C-alpha cells in the first residue's frame, strides 16, 4: 500500500516541489537538520526535489523519463545483477502502468538475486584486486540475507572476531590487509569513510586543507596494535604508540584521532618494564608458534574504539555519507561526491543537502541499505532516459539530468549473456502468488551463476575512465567458448528455439526481446531481415551471426 | 559529420593533461553519418553491401600495411619516426654480482671472474661474454637503491616506477610508453607482454590510463589469445557480422556518447587489424638462418618475436625471463640463465642494429631487485634492493657508459644513488618523453615519473 502511495506522491512532487519546506530546527537526535527537508519526507521525493531544484536554478536541460522497458532492464540489472528473463518481461507487460515500477522493484528486491548481486558489489568494493575470498563472500551474503544494518556490518568487519559464528568471514576485510599497516589505515578510511588520507602520510595534504599528518597517523593509531597470529587470527597488542616526524622535523606521538578531529582517550594501562617484556614475548609467540600459550586480549582496544568513534560521529556522518555516496554512485553512475574517496571541503558534494539528508535518513533508519536503494531507484532522477540526441554538449554528469550509460560489471555481463541465450519459453513463470516459485527460481538462479562463472574473468571490472578492452572484442570475435557456448543451438537455447520458427519477423522479435529486452524498431527489422534474407540456405548460421551481433553489441554491454 | 565530443575531466586545472583524454575514434562508419544508418532511409541492400565492403576494405588495407613493412623504404621511413622499447624482464631478481657489477676476489664476490669489455675500463661478469663485446650500445647503472626486497611490491615498484597509492592505480612503463608513443588508430598492438613462465607471472597494468593501453598478454602460448578466427566461420562472414554489429550498435552509441561507449566501438574496430598482425607472432615466417641465430631457447624465440613486433611498429614489448630467484645454488642458476640472457640479448642487439632499428629502440634489462652480496648457507643469494644494477641499450643511451658505484663488497651504493623514479625518468628522457609531464586526474597532478624524479643525464646520449 505504501508502495503505491510512493508512486502517487512522487508524481505530485514534480509539480509541487516548491511547496516542500525545509526545516529550520535541529533534530532531537543531534543530527543536522538545519536547512534540510523534513526527515519524514519520502526518499524519492527528496531526491527529486534537490536534483530538480538545482537544475531549474542552473537552467540545465533535463531529458524525459526512460521508457518502462528500459527501466525494466535497468532496474533488473541494478537490483538483480542480470537482464530480465522472457518470463519476467511477460509478467511486467501484464501490470498496469501506474504501479508497474513499484511492483517490479518490490519483486526484484525479494528475489535471491538482490542479495547475491549486492554481495558481489560489496565484495568488489571491499576486497577489490584481492584474491577470491569465499569466507568473506559467505559472510556478506549471510549478512545481506538478514538485512543486517550497515553499521553492524562495519562493526563485524572491524571487530574481526575469531568466532565460529556466521560473522566469522567478516574478519577477512582486515586479515587480507593485516600485514600492511598502511593498507589497514588507508583502505578503512577510503572504503568506510570516503576519505583518502594517504597523501597526508609524509606531509600535511598538499591539496586538501582538511587532512593533516595528524589525521593519517591518528587513523593509523587505531590499527597499529593489530597483528595477525601464526594461526591467522587477528588480535591486538597491549601497548604501542605511533610516532611520526613532521615536515618541520619534530617527532610526534599520534593521538587516536577520528576524521572529525575527535580524539579517543587512550586508556592503555601502565605496565612495568617486566610486564612489557612478558607481553612482547607473548606477542612474539603468537606470531611464530602454532600452539602459543593462552593470550589475554588487552582491556583497551584502539581498533574497537574506532568503531565507537565512527558510530558516534553525528557531525561528519562519515560512515553513513560514504555508503550513501557509493550506493548513489553505483545506481546513477556518478557519486554525489566524485571521486568517492575525496570527501572533503575542497571537493564538495554536487548536492550537499541531498547527501546530508540521505545520510541522516540512513542513520535514523538503522543504516538500512535496502531502504536507501529502494528510495533511489524509485526516484524520477534515477529513471531518466540515457539518450542525449541534441547537438549541444550534454549536461555534466553530476547534474543527473541525463541517465549515465554504465558499463556492466563482469558478473552482470556474464549473467546477462547467460540469460540472453536461453530458450524464452523455459523460464519459471512469474507468479508472485504461487508458493513454489521462489524455490524454483532460486535453483534456476544458481544454475545460471554456475553457467556464467566461466565467463566472468573474460571481462574487466569497470572503474572511473573505463574503456572496453580490445581483448574483450577479440574474445567475442574469435573465442572457442563464445562459439561453442554462447552461440550453441541446442533445444534449451534461443538459437535452438528459433530453428523451429519460419517467420523471420517473428524470429527477429524474439531475438531482440531475449537479448535487448525490447521490440526492434522498423529499421532494425529491415536490417535483420535483409541479413537473414541474404543468407541463402544457411538460415541457422545467419541467425547465429545475428544473435552474435546483438550479444556483442554496445547496447548489450551497457546498462542504459 | 559531428565531431566526437571530447570528454572533459571535471575540475581539471593547471597546465597538465586531463585523463581521460582520448576523444576515441568516434562512431565513424565507412558510409554512415552520426545520425545512424537506419534513420537515413538507406535502401536495405546498400546497408549490408556497404557495411560488408567497408569491413573487407579495412582488412585489405591492414594486410597491405603489413606487407609494406617488408619493403625497405617503408621500413626506413618508419624507423626514422618511431621509438620503441623492448624490456627484458629478469623475473625473480638477477644478481648484479653475476652480471653488471662483478666483485671478484672479495668474500661476497662468488666464483666468477670479471672480464674486460670492448669499452676500455668497463668490466662485467664473465657470464656475459657476448655482451662484453657489444658494450658500445649499452649503459650500465650500478647504483639502484629501491629499498623494497619483496617480489610483489618490488615488481609493483619497478614496473610502475612508484608504489600504488590507495585509490589510484598507476600505469606501468609499458602502458605509459604505449600511451605516449602509440598511435591512436594503430593496427598493431601497442603493448605486448610475453610471460610464459608461471613463476612471478604478472600481466602488467595500464592503471588509470584504461584498457586501451593494457598489454596484449601472452602467457599460455606464443600466439595471443583469440587472435585467430574460428574455422566455423568464414573470413567474409566474420567481417560481415562485425559490420552488422557496428550498424546495429550505432544509433545506441550515438545517443550516448562517452569515453566508455566510444571505447566499445573502437575496440571492435581494432579487431581486424590485430588479427592481421597474428603473423608477427609467427617466427616460422623468419628465414631459417635468422631463427638459428637466436638459438633454440624460448627466451631467444621471444626476443625474435619482440624484434618482429618493434619492426612492425609496436612501441613496447616486454619479454620476461624467469626465474632468477636463486636463494639456493645461485651460481649454477646464474650460469644457466646468464648464458641465455647473454646470447639472446646479444643477437637481439645485433639484429636490431643491422636493421637500423637499434637507433630507435631502447632495450632495457631490469627485474624487481638484485641479490644479496652475502652468500647464504645454501650457496644462494637472497633478495636485495639496496645496491643493484640494470642496463639500457640502444636508442637515447650513451653506449659504453657506467653510472654509479657500490662499495667493495657490494653492500651499499657509494656513488650516484638511483631510485625507481629516477630510473623511470631516465628511460622516458631517453625516449624523448618529458618525464615531468603531468596527467591530471581530477584536480590531482600525476607526473609521468614520480614527483622529484631526476633523470641520469650522464647515461643519456
CATH architecture annotation of the largest domain in chain B: 3-Layer(aba) Sandwich
Gross morphology of chain A: globular
Straight-line distance between termini of chain B: 46 Å
User: Looking across the biggest beta sheet of chain A, what order are the strands in?
Assistant: 1-2
Treating each run of at least 4 consecutive H or I residues as one helix, how many helices of chain B?
12
Count of DSSP H/I helices of chain A: 25
Number of strands of chain A: 6
**Quick one: which chains have the greatest interface?**
A-B, 69 and 65 residues
In total, the number of domains of chain A comes to 4
Brief summary:
The complex is a heterodimer of chains A (560) and B (461). Chain A is mostly helical. Chain A has helices at residues 2-15, 43-58, 68-80, 86-94, 100-110, 112-126, 134-145, 150-159, 172-175, 181-193, 213-223, 273-288, 302-311, 318-332, 352-364, 369-377, 410-420, 437-456, 470-478, 480-486, 494-499, 504-516, 522-534, 539-551, 554-557; strands at residues 226-228, 234-236, 243-245, 251-253, 406-407, 558-559.
Explain how this protein is built.
The complex is a heterodimer of chains A (560) and B (461). Chain A is mainly alpha-helical and 560 residues long. In chain A, 51% of the residues lie in helices and 3% in strands. Chain A has 25 helices and 6 strands. Chain A has helices at 2-15, 43-58, 68-80, 86-94, 100-110, 112-126, 134-145, 150-159, 172-175, 181-193, 213-223, 273-288, 302-311, 318-332, 352-364, 369-377, 410-420, 437-456, 470-478, 480-486, 494-499, 504-516, 522-534, 539-551, 554-557, and strands spanning 226-228, 234-236, 243-245, 251-253, 406-407, 558-559. The longest helix of chain A is centred in the last third of the chain and has 20 residues, at 437-456. Chain A starts with a helix and ends with a strand. Chain B is an alpha/beta fold and 461 residues long. Chain B has 2 domains: 25-65 and 230-269, no CATH class; 83-223 and 287-459, 3-Layer(aba) Sandwich (Alkaline Phosphatase, subunit A). In chain B, 33% of the residues lie in helices and 15% in strands. Chain B contains 12 helices and 17 strands. In chain B, strands 7-6-8-2-9-12-5-13 form an 8-stranded mixed beta sheet, with helices on both faces. In chain B, strands 1-16-17 form a 3-stranded mixed beta sheet, with no helix packed on it. In chain B, helix 1 (44-69) crosses helix 6 (235-254), helix 6 packs antiparallel against helix 7 (259-269) and helix 10 (298-311) runs parallel beside helix 11 (330-354). Chains A and B meet through helix 10, strand 5, helix 19, helix 23 and helix 24 of A and helix 1, helix 6, helix 7 and helix 8 of B.
Amino acid at each position: 500500500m505504501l508502495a503505491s502511495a510512493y508512486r502517487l506522491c512522487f508524481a505530485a512532487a514534480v509539480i509541487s516541489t516548491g511547496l516542500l519546506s525545509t526545516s529550520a530546527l535541529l533534530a532531537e537526535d543531534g543530527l543536522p537538520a538545519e536547512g534540510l527537508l523534513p526527515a519524514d519526507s519520502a526518499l524519492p521525493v527528496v531526491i527529486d526535489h534537490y536534483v530538480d531544484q538545482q537544475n531549474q536554478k542552473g537552467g540545465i536541460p533535463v531529458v524525459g523519463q526512460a521508457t518502462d522497458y528500459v527501466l525494466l532492464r535497468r532496474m533488473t540489472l541494478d537490483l538483480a545483477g542480470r537482464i530480465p528473463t522472457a518470463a519476467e518481461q511477460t509478467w511486467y507487460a501484464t501490470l498496469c502502468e501506474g504501479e508497474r515500477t513499484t511492483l517490479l522493484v518490490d519483486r526484484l528486491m525479494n528475489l535471491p538475486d538482490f542479495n547475491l548481486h549486492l554481495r558481489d558489489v560489496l565484495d568488489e568494493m571491499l576486497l577489490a584486486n584481492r584474491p577470491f575470498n569465499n569466507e568473506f563472500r559467505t559472510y556478506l551474503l549471510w549478512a545481506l540475507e538478514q538485512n543486517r544494518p550497515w553499521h553492524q556490518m562495519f562493526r563485524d568487519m572491524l571487530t574481526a572476531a575469531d568466532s565460529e559464528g556466521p560473522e566469522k568471514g567478516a574478519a577477512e576485510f582486515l586479515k587480507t590487509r593485516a600485514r600492511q599497516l598502511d593498507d589497514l589505515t588507508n583502505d578503512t578510511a577510503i572504503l568506510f569513510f570516503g576519505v583518502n588520507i594517504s597523501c597526508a602520510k609524509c606531509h600535511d595534504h598538499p591539496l586538501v586543507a582538511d587532512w593533516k599528518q595528524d589525521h593519517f597517523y591518528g587513523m593509523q593509531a587505531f590499527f597499529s596494535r593489530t597483528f595477525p597470529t601464526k594461526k591467522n587470527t587477528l588480535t591486538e597488542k597491549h601497548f604501542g604508540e605511533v610516532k611520526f616526524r613532521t615536515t618541520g622535523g619534530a617527532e610526534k606521538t599520534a593521538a587516536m584521532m577520528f576524521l572529525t578531529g575527535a580524539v579517543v582517550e587512550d586508556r592503555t594501562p601502565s605496565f612495568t618494564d617486566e610486564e612489557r617484556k612478558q607481553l612482547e614475548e607473548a606477542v612474539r609467540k603468537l606470531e611464530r608458534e602454532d600452539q602459543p600459550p593462552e593470550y589475554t586480549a588487552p582491556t583497551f582496544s584502539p581498533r574497537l574504539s574506532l568503531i565507537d568513534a565512527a558510530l558516534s560521529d553525528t557531525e561528519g556522518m562519515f560512515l553513513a555519507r560514504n555508503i550513501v555516496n557509493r550506493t548513489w554512485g553505483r545506481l546513477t553512475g556518478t557519486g554525489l561526491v566524485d571521486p568517492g574517496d575525496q570527501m572533503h571541503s575542497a571537493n564538495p558534494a554536487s548536492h550537499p543537502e541531498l547527501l546530508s539528508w540521505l545520510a541522516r535518513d540512513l542513520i535514523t533508519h538503522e543504516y538500512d541499505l535496502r531502504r536507501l536503494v529502494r528510495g533511489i531507484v524509485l526516484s524520477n532522477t534515477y529513471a531518466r532516459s540515457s539518450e542525449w540526441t541534441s547537438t549541444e554538449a550534454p549536461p555534466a554528469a553530476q547534474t543527473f539530468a541525463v541517465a549515465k550509460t554504465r558499463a556492466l560489471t563482469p558478473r552482470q555481463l556474464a549473467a546477462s549473456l547467460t540469460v540472453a541465450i536461453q530458450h524464452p519459453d523455459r523460464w519459471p513463470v512469474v507468479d508472485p502468488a504461487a508458493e513454489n516459485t521462489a524455490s524454483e527460481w532460486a535453483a534456476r538462479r544458481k544454475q545460471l551463476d554456475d553457467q556464467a562463472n566461466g565467463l566472468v574473468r573474460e571481462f574487466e571490472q569497470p572503474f572511473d575512465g573505463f574503456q572496453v578492452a580490445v581483448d574483450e572484442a577479440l574474445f567475442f570475435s574469435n573465442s572457442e567458448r563464445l562459439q561453442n557456448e554462447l552461440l550453441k543451438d541446442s533445444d534449451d537455447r534461443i538459437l535452438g528455439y528459433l530453428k523451429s520458427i519460419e517467420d523471420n519477423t517473428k524470429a527477429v522479435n524474439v531475438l531482440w526481446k531475449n537479448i535487448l529486452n525490447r521490440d526492434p524498431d522498423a529499421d532494425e527489422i529491415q536490417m535483420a531481415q535483409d541479413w537473414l534474407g541474404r543468407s541463402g540456405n544457411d538460415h541457422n548460421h545467419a541467425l547465429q551471426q545475428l544473435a552474435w551481433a546483438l550479444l556483442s553489441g554496445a547496447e548489450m554491454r551497457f546498462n542504459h | 559529420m559531428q565531431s566526437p565530443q571530447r570528454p572533459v575531466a571535471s575540475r581539471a586545472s593547471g597546465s597538465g593533461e586531463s585523463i581521460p583524454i582520448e576523444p576515441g575514434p568516434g562512431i565513424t562508419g565507412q558510409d554512415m553519418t552520426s545520425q545512424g544508418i537506419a534513420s537515413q532511409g538507406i535502401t536495405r541492400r546498400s546497408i549490408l553491401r556497404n557495411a560488408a565492403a567497408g569491413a573487407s576494405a579495412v582488412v585489405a588495407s591492414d594486410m597491405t600495411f603489413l606487407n609494406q613493412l617488408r619493403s625497405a623504404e617503408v621500413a626506413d621511413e618508419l624507423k626514422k619516426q618511431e621509438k620503441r622499447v623492448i624490456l627484458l624482464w629478469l623475473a625473480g631478481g638477477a644478481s648484479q654480482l653475476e652480471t653488471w657489477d662483478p666483485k671478484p676476489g672479495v668474500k661476497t664476490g662468488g666464483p666468477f671472474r670479471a672480464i674486460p669489455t670492448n669499452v676500455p675500463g668497463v668490466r662485467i661478469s664473465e657470464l656475459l661474454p657476448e655482451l662484453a663485446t657489444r658494450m658500445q650500445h649499452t649503459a650500465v647503472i650500478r647504483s639502484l637503491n629501491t629499498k623494497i626486497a619483496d617480489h610483489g611490491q618490488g615488481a609493483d615498484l619497478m614496473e610502475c616506477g612508484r608504489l600504488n597509492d590507495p585509490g589510484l592505480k598507476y600505469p606501468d612503463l609499458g602502458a605509459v610508453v604505449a600511451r605516449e608513443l602509440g598511435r591512436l588508430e594503430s593496427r598493431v598492438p601497442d603493448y605486448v607482454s610475453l610471460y610464459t613462465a608461471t613463476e612471478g607471472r604478472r600481466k602488467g597494468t595500464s592503471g588509470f590510463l584504461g584498457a586501451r593501453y593494457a598489454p596484449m598478454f601472452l602467457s599460455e602460448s606464443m600466439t595471443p589469445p583469440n587472435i585467430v578466427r574460428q574455422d566455423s566461420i568464414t573470413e567474409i562472414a566474420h567481417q560481415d557480422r562485425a559490420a552488422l554489429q557496428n550498424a546495429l550498435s550505432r544509433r545506441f552509441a550515438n545517443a550516448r556518447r562517452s569515453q566508455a561507449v566510444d571505447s566499445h566501438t573502437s575496440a571492435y574496430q581494432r579487431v581486424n587489424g590485430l588479427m592481421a598482425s597474428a603473423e608477427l607472432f609467427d617466427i616460422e615466417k623468419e628465414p631459417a638462418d635468422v631463427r638459428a641465430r637466436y638459438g633454440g631457447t624460448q627466451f631467444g624465440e621471444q626476443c625474435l618475436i619482440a624484434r618482429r613486433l618493434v619492426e612492425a611498429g609496436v612501441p613496447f614489448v616486454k619479454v620476461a625471463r624467469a626465474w632468477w630467484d636463486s636463494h639456493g645454488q645461485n651460481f649454477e642458476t646464474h650460469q644457466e640463465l646468464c648464458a641465455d640472457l647473454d646470447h639472446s640479448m646479444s643477437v637481439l642487439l645485433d639484429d636490431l642494429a643491422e636493421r637500423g632499428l637499434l637507433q630507435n629502440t631502447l632495450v632495457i634489462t631490469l627485474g624487481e631487485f638484485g641479490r644479496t652480496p652475502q652468500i647464504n648457507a645454501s650457496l644462494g643469494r637472497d633478495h636485495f634492493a639496496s645496491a643493484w644494477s640494470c642496463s639500457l641499450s640502444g636508442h637515447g643511451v650513451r653506449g659504453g657508459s657506467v653510472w654509479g658505484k657500490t662499495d667493495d663488497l657490494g653492500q651499499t651504493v657509494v656513488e650516484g644513488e638511483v631510485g625507481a623514479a629516477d630510473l623511470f625518468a631516465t628511460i622516458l628522457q631517453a625516449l624523448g618523453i618529458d618525464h615531468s609531464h603531468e596527467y591530471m586526474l581530477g584536480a590531482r597532478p600525476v607526473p609521468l615519473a614520480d614527483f622529484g624524479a631526476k633523470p641520469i643525464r650522464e647515461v643519456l646520449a
